[in-house]
Each structure stands twice: as structure tokens, then as C-alpha cells.
Amino acid sequence: MKIMRIILALLLMISALTSINAQPVYGTPFSIFTRKSTAVEVKALTSGELSPYEKATIESYITTTYTGTYILGEATNSYNCFNFAYNLSDGNPDIVWMNRFNSSAGDNIDNYWNDGSLIQVCNEADADKINYFAGDHSAITSAASGKYDSKWGNGNLVTHTPTNVPLAYSGSNRDYYANTKINGATYYLCDGTRTFSVKSITGATYSWTNSSGLTATSGSTSNTFTVQRNGSSTGTNSVSVAITSPCSSQTVNETVSFPVGGIDAIPGVNTQFIMIHCNVVGYKYTVHSPSATNYKWYQRDYPSGTIWTLVQDSGDTTYAALGGGSTCASYEIRVVASNSCDSTDYYFPSDDCPPFQAEGCTYGRSLLVSPNPVSSNVNLQIIDEVNSSELKRGRQIQRIKVLDKMGQFKKLIQGDNSSKMSINLSELPADIYTVFVYDGKLWLSAKIIKR
């Protein structure tokens, strides 16, 4: 791109002490795809990235020459304006270079509007994407009012006004494009209504239709459309919209499909280990089925010798609290999610040992951790603070749990039945954790800082 050559030429002139890295080298072209599955040719950088000095020099040049710009990202040869505008900014992960035309001199970025992933609109207020059609450049509308975000060649990702760009971009020659994707939930529809929408475009026309398992309730010619389940219909259904714009010669057609008359499966359970009060350990279980309206919880294989209680038995979260008891035990929890159409259940195991020592509670016994902070191995030691008959049972490390500050399990380790033990935390990211050690009767805990 022209701006890249301009910037590199500038660097060569002003850098007498630092040599420019080798020119960027890209691999064999390959395809990524538009939202409507049309191939777009790209290539990935294999060598020749900018040096830190070059990146800093480019950024300094942009901020000095184009006053009022704001730097969003560093200079890099790995991706350019087209990939940012049409791919990265939509949440896709591909860090690649995308040219206006493909290697056969055919359409490349034009595929985004030729296949209806975007539609041309008449003014900036309706636009999501901007194509500088005379200057080999593209941008997106910024969160900052009246500004754009764009990647300047191999330079920085920049927030700027529409015309405060390099001369080569021909800032006054711009086309505007809007996304035409249908927005709306696609999980099971059982009761009630569901509303879908597309972008509101000045002067556009909208024509919505729906499959036979649905009934339209409002909005068939606006940018929003509401449907409900048709009687007792089941199976996959869809809504579609045809969009025309005064500044586009094509009609864009969009469709979204979703199931009707059932319920979404529960994909899993989120478990948190919580401290309720001294001598009571608790679990907070959370599940979610987007189409469910009711939940019911059950406990199976109730463990003997323990007192586990489901504190709450409805809603999408529940607690199981342990108070008293003397043995470790396993059991199973079942949760049933339902709506008026159907139900689904989910089973998961839970096991633990009797009461633990929470912070601020004292039983004459504590857990010593060292070093703290720690980067890899941490030593755990059970310390008796008083001479008590209660403590004569021994100091055995039977089980170890490491939880993050949100109460999520990170490690579960079997103890070696000694009073001292070392564990490795090197794989955990830097954060604050709580280590719990079970000594055969109580859970002891201590905070630890992982570097």
C-alpha cells in the first residue's frame, strides 16, 4: 500500500543510526470467509516484522504530522486496514494482510458487499464501514463521535476524523456500507414472542417473512420483526428479511433459523467453593438453559455420616452446605430445567470432606505457606498453635485445593498424610489464590500470591 512505502521511505531518511529491518515476507495466500461464506484472499507475515525503534518512529511521525489523531494500536506488518475493517473489527481472530484485489487481479474486499454481507448506504450516519475508494484504504466508524478507526498501512491503528488521513488515501472520496446481519435470540422458542432486528438505514425498505411454525405479530415492513410460536409447532423455523437501500443496486436477503417447541440442554455446571461461616463449607452451583423458565434441584446418593443440605432448590443457582459430620463422601446432584414445552436434566458429582477452618476462625491449628509470594513451588505446613487434646489426632495433609479469588477450582491434589508438603503452582497465572488443606477433620486455609 502507498502509505507503507511512504512511511518506510521516511524512516530511511531520518534513521542514520538504526537500520531498517528486512522487507516483510508473507506466506502463500489462503482464504478467510465473509459472513456469507465468500472467500477472501489473505496472507500471513512469516518474517520481517518492524523493530521496536521503527514502531516508535512511525507512531511519532503519525502523531506529529496528523494532529488530533489517537493511537489505538502499534505499527505492525502483520495486518492492514482492510483486514481490520472487514475482519478483525467484527471479532474474527485472523491477523493477516488483505489486499484490495486478489493475486489474480480479481475482486477481494468487494466480496463483502457483493455477497450481501454489507449493503451500500447513502450517508455516514448509517455506516459501519467506510471504503476510501480512490485511495486503497478502509475504516470503521469509531465510538468517538464523528471519527473513524483505521489501520494506516503498516503503521498504527488510529482514531481520526474522516479527512485527517495521508494524502494517498484521497480522504474526500468515500463510500459507506452497513452490516445487514439479523440480530435476535436463536435458542428454543416456547412461549411468548421473539423480536428480530436489522440496522435502521435511512430510506431503506424491509420485507420480513417467516416459516409456517411461526406467526408474525408486528413489524413486517420495518427494521424490527416480532413472531410467536404457531400453536404447538415444533422443529426448526426461520425468519427472513429482504433489504433495499437507495444507494445500492442490489437487494440483500438475510435469514436466521432457530428451534421451536423444546428446551435447550444444560451445557455444564459452574462450581464455586464458598465460606459460609466457621465450621461450614459451602458450594454454589450455577447452571443455565437459555429457554428454561424453571429449575428444580435434587440430591442423590445422600452420603452417610455427613449433613449436606440443599439450601435452595429452585432457580438457576443453588447452594449445598455442609455442617457437622465426620467423613469424606461423594454424592450426585441432579437439576431439571423446564419450560411449558419440555424439560431437560443434568447430573454432576460432588464430593468433599467435613468442616473447614475459615479465615478468622481459630481451632489452635493453622496452615503455614512459604514462600509467599510464590512463582512455582510452595511449601505447606500444618502448625499446632496450642497443646490441645483436640489436636492429638495428628497433622496429616490428606487433601489440597487451590481456588482463585472467584471461588473457582484450579487444582485438586491428593495429600501425602504428612504435616509438610510442597506443591507446584507454576502453571497458574499471576493472581491471588486461597489454598485449602484438609487434615482429617478440618479444612485449613491461607491466602497466597502467585507471581
What does this structure look like?
With 451 residues, the chain is mostly beta strands. The protein folds into four domains: 2-179, no CATH class; 193-260; 270-352, Immunoglobulin-like, CATH 2.60.40; 365-450, Immunoglobulin-like. 8% of the residues lie in helices and 41% in strands. The chain has four helices and 31 strands. The protein has a seven-stranded antiparallel beta sheet with strand order 5-10-9-8-7-11-6. A four-stranded antiparallel beta sheet has the order 18-19-22-21, with no helix packed on it. The protein starts with a helix and ends with a strand.
Question: How would the blueprint of this fold be written?
Answer:
Layout: H1 2-14, E1 25-26, E2 30-33, E3 39-42, E4 45-47, H2 52-65, E5 70-73, H3 81-86, H4 111-114, E6 118-121, E7 129-132, E8 137-141, E9 148-151, E10 157-160, E11 175-179, E12 193-197, E13 205-210, E14 214-218, E15 224-229, E16 235-244, E17 252-260, E18 270-277, E19 280-286, E20 294-300, E21 308-310, E22 317-323, E23 329-338, E24 343-352, E25 365-370, E26 377-384, E27 399-404, E28 409-414, E29 420-424, E30 431-438, E31 443-450
Antiparallel strand pairs: 1-4, 2-3, 5-10, 6-11, 7-8, 7-11, 8-9, 9-10, 12-15, 13-16, 14-15, 16-17, 18-19, 19-22, 20-23, 21-22, 23-24, 25-26, 26-29, 27-28, 27-30, 30-31
